[in-house]
User: Fold DUF5683 domain-containing protein from Eiseniibacteriota bacterium.
Amino acid sequence: MMFVLFQSALVLASCLYGDLRAAAADSVCCHFLGDAGIELRGDYILSGTMPVTFCGMQRGDRFRMTLEGPGVERRIGNLEIDPSGRVSVSGLRLGAALRNAILPGSGSCHTDRRAAGWVDRLSLAASLYLLYLEDREFRDLEDDHDLLLERLAGAELLETRQMLELAAHETALEANVQNDHRKRLALFSAAIYGLQVIDPFLLSPPPRSSVEGGGSIIRTKTAESSRPKAFILSLLHPGRGQFYQGKTVRGMLFSALTAASGLAALEFHNRYDVEANRYEILVGRFEASESLSEKELLAREADIQWDEVEDARAERNAAYIITAGLWGWSLIDTLWRNDGGGGESRYSFEWSPVSGAIVRRF
Assistant:
């Protein structure tokens, strides 16, 4: 009996030893060379500052590889270990761009740019909602115009026909103004959509790396964070330069505020066009009128309407100036020190919703 138990224990120990040897055979050690921080995120997380060696990784493992650190560009990609134990590194940009094309913001979230992704989603949603409302209003004006034309076709009295012709003409002018506004909103929405599609190519470059030593040594190269590049990114899309520099909160604020002010500017632009169109209609009525008393009444109405036009023009111009100011502010902010480090400058640009200041640190 004791012999049987002893033999069973030997078999069990042999099996366990075999499993451990198999696990050890599947285990891979990777040596990462460079001068930045590295994080590998998969079923488990490995992180450290290069040069660093990670052991215990398994064949077939797949990780999200992120390189970042003070004063350097953030880079992200995929790291895979094939069945032979060889490591390969690839980028995420194309896949992320396709995700953004299908579901706006999802690709940015996929590359750990969640703040940028959600700002784009909300901005696009707001723009599309306004476009939907303006499109409905345009369709209503079109229906009114078609109804007036139908009534005009069946009218027999000359006076009735003249009234219907005038009403149809004025409705057509209003529809044209509304259609112009609808087109501007459509272009604005398309711009937001297009920029968020290409966003991964701007903000999520792949790691610069080469695999050596039979596939177990990964040599990485980092680039310093560039203020000119940040400036260009914010010039293309306000706030993107801040995201590039690691100023996530500022990036969210500049992106959201610029989009909101842009939409507001388009609304004020539409109000100006509406008021100007009403003034033109009054002028047309004045010129077509043959009654002196009616001309005097229309002249007074036109004077009042002209004041509305001037007010609307001032509001439109102010809205565009505010939008341009926010855009310019985001450009200037990229030239100041990144709070994330680098220690390149003692100066930074600190701001709040009600004030701003240039700060020098000692």
Observations:
- The domain at 26-92+206-224 is CATH 2.60.40 (Immunoglobulin-like).
- The radius of gyration is 32 Å.
- The CA atoms of residues 138 and 178 lie 6 Å apart.
- The chain has two domains: 26-92+206-224, 115-203+225-360.
